[in-house]
Amino acid sequence: MPSFLRPHAFLTKSQVIFHLILISSFLLLNGCKSQEIETKAELIVFGTVVQIATYTTDKQQAEQAIQAVEQRFQTFHHEWHAWEKGGIVSKINQSIAAGQSIEVADSVKDFILKSQELSKQSDYLFDPGIGELVALWGFHSEHWAGPPPTEAKIQHWLKVRPSIADLYFKENRLFSRNPDVSLDFGGNAKGLALDIAIHKLREAGIENAVVNIGGDMRVIGNKNGQAWSIGIQDPKNPSKAIAAVHLSGDESIVTSGTYQRFFEWKGQRFSHILNPNTGKPASGFASVTVIHPDATTADSAATAILIAGPKHWKEVAKKMGIKQVLVIDQQDNILQTKGMAKRTKLL
């Protein structure tokens, strides 16, 4: 899963090519005559490409709906940026570090509570409370060239082990039992953004649409009665698809990958996806793709399952209620749940 809400999470040439593949996949039928009108937009938000396409009989309605999503995304980016001053995450982290409580909006409380539940289900492999560990590895900075943190620093973090589980509420006032908690929602905020976008579109009366944020998608309805064919990247050759799946109705597809953002130091590669149990980057899988109706859940689960690795991924998927998973290991072997295997076509 590409890291997002990070100004340095720019797209590589191969990612851009793949995004074009995705665009062509769900816009394949443009030449067909239909009563529905296609309205689409492409913008750069969260340091990545966001594509929105709607299919309605009212173009003005669609344009207004897309504009509403774009405006909401700009606000969302500012509010949920892990280290942007003035945003709600920054304010929460400052309050926690100072040993103070903070009043938050219902929407913020709901998202934190949902993230806590998803973290618990994942045995805290997915844990947005590890912002200090993310910073320790340098993934909060725009340019990172190493070195990795010392073993002593990692062990110190593991000793205090801050977690989103340390947070609690009294009505809308947020408290923390651990002053070392630092929130970073890079593991599931993109999923939340997808869910918010679809909610906005539905509020505007849109029934058929697809929202694509850096290759992660949520769709509602269909395009002229046909499903969207979505490609799943080959980790060793990201410009190509290794498998394809059709989405329709109301579904999300999210991929988390160690190949998507990484740094090298003295010949060793370090992924941005960190295992809270070891304090170090996950390395068991190259990528994990999850399909689920709720994009926030799919995003969280993809991260947790990737960290779980070959021995425990099925167990974590089951605990999180995820039935459709495709994993690719470091040798390019593909493993799938039964639910996923029924609908994927290997290329």
List keywords for this structure.
18 strands; about 35% helix; three-stranded antiparallel sheet; alpha+beta; eight-stranded antiparallel sheet; about 350 residues; disordered N terminus; 9 helices
What do these coordinates show?
The structure is a single chain. The chain has 347 residues and is α+β, with helices and mostly antiparallel strands. The protein is built from 9 helices and 18 strands. It has helices at residues 13-26, 59-80, 88-97, 106-121, 131-136, 151-160, 189-203, 295-319, 338-341; strands spanning 37-45, 48-56, 102-103, 167-170, 173-176, 209-213, 216-221, 228-234, 237-247, 249-257, 262-265, 268-271, 274-275, 280-281, 285-292, 324-329, 334-336, 344-346. Strands 1-2-6-7-10-15-16-17 form an 8-stranded antiparallel β-sheet, with helices on both faces. The chain has a 3-stranded antiparallel β-sheet with strand order 3-5-4. A 3-stranded antiparallel β-sheet has the order 8-9-18. A hairpin with a 4-residue loop joins strand 16 and strand 17. Helix 2 (59-80) runs antiparallel to helix 7 (189-203) and helix 4 packs parallel to helix 8. The radius of gyration is 20 Å and the shape is globular. The model is unreliable at 1-33 (pLDDT under 50).
